[in-house]
Amino acid sequence: MTDPLADPERNNLAPLACQYCNTSLQGKRRYAKFCSVNCRVNSHRQDVGRVEAITAQALIDGPMRNALIETGDLNPQDEHDAEKLREAFTSMCRQFAKKYA
Ligand SMILES: [Zn+2]
User: Are residue 72 and residue 39 in the same domain, yes or no?
Assistant: First the structure.
Protein backbone atom coordinates (compact mmCIF):
# COMPACT_ATOMS: atom_id res chain seq x y z
CA MET A 1 0.00 0.00 0.00
CA THR A 2 1.36 3.37 -0.96
CA ASP A 3 -1.38 5.55 0.53
CA PRO A 4 0.05 6.88 3.84
CA LEU A 5 -3.49 7.11 5.26
CA ALA A 6 -4.03 3.40 4.79
CA ASP A 7 -2.08 2.44 7.91
CA PRO A 8 -3.33 4.45 10.89
CA GLU A 9 -1.09 2.78 13.45
CA ARG A 10 2.09 3.47 11.61
CA ASN A 11 1.07 7.07 11.02
CA ASN A 12 -0.50 7.56 14.44
CA LEU A 13 -3.67 9.03 13.00
CA ALA A 14 -7.24 8.99 14.20
CA PRO A 15 -9.22 5.86 13.33
CA LEU A 16 -9.99 5.73 9.65
CA ALA A 17 -13.46 4.30 9.96
CA CYS A 18 -16.61 6.04 11.13
CA GLN A 19 -17.13 5.25 14.82
CA TYR A 20 -20.81 4.72 14.22
CA CYS A 21 -21.26 2.92 10.90
CA ASN A 22 -17.69 1.87 10.16
CA THR A 23 -17.62 3.58 6.77
CA SER A 24 -14.11 4.45 5.65
CA LEU A 25 -13.12 7.99 6.52
CA GLN A 26 -10.51 8.25 3.84
CA GLY A 27 -10.66 11.70 2.31
CA LYS A 28 -12.25 13.21 5.44
CA ARG A 29 -10.36 15.61 7.57
CA ARG A 30 -7.54 14.08 9.54
CA TYR A 31 -9.22 13.73 12.92
CA ALA A 32 -12.77 13.07 11.80
CA LYS A 33 -14.46 10.38 13.87
CA PHE A 34 -17.65 10.09 11.87
CA CYS A 35 -18.44 9.97 8.16
CA SER A 36 -21.44 12.29 8.43
CA VAL A 37 -23.42 14.53 10.73
CA ASN A 38 -26.01 11.77 10.92
CA CYS A 39 -23.54 9.31 12.37
CA ARG A 40 -22.24 11.85 14.84
CA VAL A 41 -25.78 12.56 16.05
CA ASN A 42 -26.75 8.89 16.16
CA SER A 43 -23.64 8.01 18.08
CA HIS A 44 -24.37 10.76 20.59
CA ARG A 45 -27.93 9.49 20.99
CA GLN A 46 -26.56 6.07 21.68
CA ASP A 47 -24.25 7.55 24.30
CA VAL A 48 -27.05 9.32 26.13
CA GLY A 49 -29.26 6.26 25.95
CA ARG A 50 -31.95 7.82 23.87
CA VAL A 51 -34.57 5.39 22.60
CA GLU A 52 -36.09 6.15 19.22
CA ALA A 53 -39.40 5.43 17.59
CA ILE A 54 -41.38 3.48 20.11
CA THR A 55 -44.54 2.39 18.34
CA ALA A 56 -47.87 3.18 19.92
CA GLN A 57 -48.96 -0.34 19.12
CA ALA A 58 -46.28 -1.90 21.24
CA LEU A 59 -46.86 0.20 24.31
CA ILE A 60 -50.44 1.33 24.54
CA ASP A 61 -52.61 -1.50 25.77
CA GLY A 62 -56.04 -1.35 27.40
CA PRO A 63 -54.97 -0.24 30.89
CA MET A 64 -52.62 2.37 29.40
CA ARG A 65 -55.41 3.69 27.19
CA ASN A 66 -57.71 3.94 30.21
CA ALA A 67 -55.01 5.76 32.13
CA LEU A 68 -54.58 8.24 29.28
CA ILE A 69 -58.32 8.92 29.30
CA GLU A 70 -58.23 9.21 33.08
CA THR A 71 -55.44 11.81 33.02
CA GLY A 72 -57.26 13.79 30.34
CA ASP A 73 -54.56 13.28 27.73
CA LEU A 74 -56.90 11.29 25.50
CA ASN A 75 -60.48 11.94 24.50
CA PRO A 76 -62.51 8.73 24.79
CA GLN A 77 -63.82 9.23 21.23
CA ASP A 78 -60.22 9.25 19.93
CA GLU A 79 -59.23 5.92 21.46
CA HIS A 80 -59.16 4.12 18.09
CA ASP A 81 -57.18 6.84 16.35
CA ALA A 82 -53.55 5.66 16.36
CA GLU A 83 -52.19 9.16 15.76
CA LYS A 84 -54.19 10.64 18.65
CA LEU A 85 -53.13 7.76 20.88
CA ARG A 86 -49.51 8.44 20.09
CA GLU A 87 -49.94 12.13 20.80
CA ALA A 88 -51.69 11.42 24.08
CA PHE A 89 -49.01 8.97 25.11
CA THR A 90 -46.24 11.40 24.20
CA SER A 91 -47.91 14.20 26.11
CA MET A 92 -48.35 11.95 29.14
CA CYS A 93 -44.68 10.92 28.98
CA ARG A 94 -43.57 14.55 28.87
CA GLN A 95 -45.58 15.37 31.96
CA PHE A 96 -44.22 12.33 33.70
CA ALA A 97 -40.65 13.29 32.80
CA LYS A 98 -41.24 16.87 33.95
CA LYS A 99 -42.37 15.64 37.33
CA TYR A 100 -39.07 13.89 37.90
CA ALA A 101 -36.78 16.34 36.12
ZN1 LIG B 1 -20.84 6.77 9.55
Answer: no
